[in-house]
Design a protein that fits this description.
Length: 139
């Protein structure tokens, strides 16, 4: 049984209600319940969300020496946060960067990731299924 932490960053608490044309209308809670049930034999999946950059960093520190992998949707901090990049480099757990939308098909500022180079891999553009694909990669 692998221990996997999903971390969602800013504005992702509004999934299902936020820009549904871009991010879909499914809530993360409903998706997570199905993901946990589907993978219950293979993974213990813990979930954390914060809109605060430092709380995301604290969570990476808390789990990064203990868990088998981290699935991180850092939201807009993806494009700005060297501190998150440093946190990812500081821990041994592999981190997969995920995005619901295809960031490369959107505004130019979303084409840059400050964290991708520190991550084990990147999944984007598959809607909420991006998280499941990241989980498959970690398992
Ligand atoms: C996002 C893409 C980011 O550019 C954006 O700031 C988000 C969500 C995604 O999952 O598609 O908040 O990470």
């Amino acid at each position: 049984m692998k221990k996997i932490q999903i971390i969602n960053g800013p504005n992702l608490n509004l999934l299902g209600r936020r820009e549904p044309g871009v991010y879909g209308s499914e809530s993360f809670d409903g998706f997570l319940a199905v993901l946990r049930e589907t993978y219950k034999e293979r993974a213990q999946i813990d979930f954390f969300q914060s809109n605060i950059e430092g709380e995301l960093i604290n969570r990476i520190h808390e789990v990064g020496f203990d868990y088998d992998g981290i699935i991180l949707n850092a939201g807009a901090y993806t494009h700005t946060s060297i501190a998150l990049q440093d946190a990812i480099r500081a821990v041994p757990a592999p981190v997969v960067e995920v995005h619901i939308s295809n960031v490369h098909a959107r505004e130019a500022f979303r084409h840059v990731s400050m964290i991708a180079g520190a991550c084990r891999g990147v999944v984007c553009g598959f809607g909420l299924d991006s998280y499941r694909l990241a989980l498959e990669g970690l398992l």
